[in-house]
Amino acid sequence: MLKVSGTVFGMRPADIEDLVVPGPPAVRGDLLLAAVSRPDLDADRSHSTLRRVSLAGGGDVPWTYGPRDSSPVISPDGRWVAFLRAAEEGGPQLYVMPAEGGEARKLTTFALGAEEPAWAPDSQRLACTARVPEAGRYGTEDADGRTPESLAEAPRRITRFDYRFDDLGFLRDRPKRLFVLDVFGEGEPEPLSPADYDVKSPVWAPDGERVVVVVPQEYDRVETLSNDLVAFPAGGGEPELLASCPGSADHPVFGPDGTLYFTGTSHTDGVVVAANCGLYAVVAGAEPRRLTDVETADVESAAGTAVPLGDEILVAVRNRGAVELRAVPASATDAKLDSLRVLHGGQVAVHGFAADGDTVVVVAATVETPGEVVVLGADGPRVLTDYAKTLRDKGIRRVEELNTTAPDGYPVHGWLVLPEGDGPHPVLRVVHGGPFAQQEWAFFDEAQVYASAGYAVVVGNPRGSAGYGQAHGRAIVQDLGTVDVDDVLALLDKALERPDIDSSRVGIMGGSYGGFMTGWIAAKHPERFRAAWSERAVNAWDSFAGSSDIGYFFAAGYVGSDPEELRKRSPLTYAADVRIPFAVVHSEHDWRCPLEQAQRQFVALRQAGVDTEFLLFPGESHELTRSGRPRHRVQRFAAVLDWWSRRLS
């Protein structure tokens, strides 16, 4: 750690407590709310409260006090705020409180908690979803009044591929169902949707008589990666099919003229991976119409629901590491990215947005903040919060953009995060997961911790990543470990041209697909690196296809089903070619890249005589580095720094 005059500069592992991050905003009139979360090391979990942000002068004040409040939604009449609140134990429940403040009233007591609250147009009812467990599971009583604590839980009968999901658990014995509540009435709500399939993303139709949800296509009769939009009568009854989507779908919302919009992908070309997400429109009796171009425009669905505003629809779009808020004309068909009006763009990552009349607000990250609330006006964006002040006071390491070309002339884009001092600095090539994801123009805690410890950190978006056009993302489909490797190394070589970078002390690391790349490159190009750190990796496609929660389609999508090809594309096959120290790091309950992937790689490396260490985190899922228990995140950072201090000294 660098020190000047006794003061510590930069981000240390324990400083994850300074990662104060606002969630998607809610705005109505002058009321602007956001759930603001931060890791709490003492409690070893994240703490989250609702805060009111001043639209006039900026700054914020507490609206609730947690410990885990989230997902605020303001009623159409502006009088009420519904939100989710979780106690120290158990899932979140739905609460409501007056918009002017006051006591929060609990509305639900679901066994596994509530999700996705949505107000009816009359501001008297709320829709939500909740997972309803089979009797005798997840702490509930069985038919004889006994709980799992008093007897062994019954076995699960599994007949489908899609029976579980990482960081969530088993699915088929606790379907997500739709509920409608009278906010001011009495009694427990009854589910509107059956237990045969999950529903998600409820939105009320403008008439207030129906609730539209996303369901698996054909009502989940067989495994599918495509969705339908259906409407359930709010008072109960059979659902009505509104649209069959060409692929995945999420976040339906009605426009002022009754048009139903949603974000989603298309699988009509037979490729189910590396698909750009688009904005679609549905009118009665017609097929969904794609408003955005499939090749150039990639909607970031994780940023939230599209917002109809006048004759446009606002969406977040991925663009060369940025996530920009752009406007899509309601009349558009296959509109290219460059034609979409930019409301907030450049070197930012929009992670949430909302609008009320002419007021448009976003939660936006930059390389200097994990996220701030920003209001967009005629005079440009105005930042209302300063959640990154503590991080900034400690010192945020400088980020420089890198542009270069691969050996075949293809452009490669990324960043270099630099430590303080003149160097020459040891360097870490950090490869992101996905692969169809993007390194963003956003504060990256891992790079900041490593750079603060004295390492230059190279990150970027090789072919296979999102945000550079669908062809860029699909360049490695059925061709892993080829041009993506060229791009990873080309970006590293660009950084190594600098005199303040030590080309003799280079390490490679990454997680998930980045872990795959680490194992692959360490075997194919061991002379380039002193050591490797491979985390939650795909190491063997043959077993991944059956053991991963998504393996049944993901392995075939990226590699194929031929056993020899699966073997050829697996880092495990080349473990004996690794000649550098190698760390295998994994989470015990990872269902995305299951533990056996790490175990097989560790054994193969040890049997080949490689200097190998295996670090295993109890109880964690694939999401350890992003949302794992805070103490584990700090312990992981400490282990990373210890590894590189021993290998790159």
TrEMBL record:
MF (Gene Ontology): aminopeptidase activity; serine-type endopeptidase activity
Q: Which residues cross the membrane?
A: none
Q: Where do the Peptidase S9 prolyl oligopeptidase catalytic domain residues begin and end? A: 441-648
Which PANTHER family would you find in this protein's record?
DIPEPTIDYL PEPTIDASE FAMILY MEMBER 6 (PTHR42776:SF27), SERINE PEPTIDASE S9 FAMILY MEMBER (PTHR42776)
What is the designated name of this protein? Dipeptidyl aminopeptidase/acylaminoacyl peptidase
Pfam families hit by this protein: PD40, Peptidase_S9
Which superkingdom does the taxonomy of this entry point to?
Bacteria
Which InterPro entries does the entry mention?
6-blade_b-propeller_TolB-like, AB_hydrolase_fold, Peptidase_S9_cat, WD40
